[in-house]
Structures
1.
Amino acid sequence: MEEKFEHTRNQPTELIKVVLYGPESTGKTTLAKQLAEHYKTLWVPEYMREYLQKKWDSEKKLVEKEDLIPIAKGQLQLEKDASQKAQNLLICDTNLLELKVYSEYYYDGFCPSEIKTEATKDNYSIYLLTYVDTPWEPDILRDRPNNREEMFRIFEAELKEQNFPYKILKGDKEERFENAVKIIDELLKKK
């Protein structure tokens, strides 16, 4: 089964990879774009949104279990492509750990073993966990406006369980951006 994600190997190891991670509608994409622009680097968008928007537009269906592996493969391919082009720093709007959390939440603990294996590899320099103090922005792919605090706790528990390095980002867009820059600047200094 491991071969399903074989194409992700041989990525540059000197690259600092920062993941924006957290519940839906917490400003991850906005912050990813801001950080990429600030550092003049690439950012990896969330493949699941693109995939599910196409599915909704063509079939009027949301995510199903059989979508998980194609979503994971798409996310990893986007990240691999960007990793090969980025110089020192890569900003990831999400990664497979987020897909694992959502899969287990929505499907009563189910997550394909291939995703679990890949998601729990320590491939990132730091996770920036976005708190739920941003305004909810509804769209067709978002469905849990009242479960944000619960989801935040689940996301943080997963980071603790995996013992992955992380910092929580709170506040408005400017505060989050400033705090993220401080964190990333420290990582760049250590490089």
Note: Helices lie at 28-39, 47-59, 68-85, 96-106, 113-119, 148-162, 173-190.
2.
Amino acid sequence: MKAGFYDTLIRQTEALLADEDDLIAAMANFSALINDNLADLNWAGFYIVKNGRLVLGPFQGKVACTRIEFGKGVCGTAAALNTTQRVADVHQFDGHIACDAASNSEIVVPVRQNGQVIAVLDIDSPLLNRFDEDDQVGIELLVKQFENCLFG
């Protein structure tokens, strides 16, 4: 069931970003696509690597943390390790940064250009254990499609 859902979103991503070459515009529309289509979210957006740290980029949701150091919180850990972080209960994640007290679970996927992390896609939910393995696979494929559209 979820595979078909994510396949549809991948096709929508391709159509949405087919002729877009501006990273900020693409991030803005992509975060809106995620926020509009995934249920039970309270935040979806990007942190962009600038000067060795993560800086808030386009997003959908409440006011967010502006800067995150590599290795700090779920986003900084994903960026530092260059791996997806899927957290069932953010309150159990050592060093979690609580930008929104309503967030209970989170998934963060690195965005890469030529293998280098240039940003992370951060998605939060007020539900515990919102993201399962199928969601992780689907969201990673969505990010791969995002990368392919923007960077070839």
Note: The two ends are 29 Å apart (CA to CA).
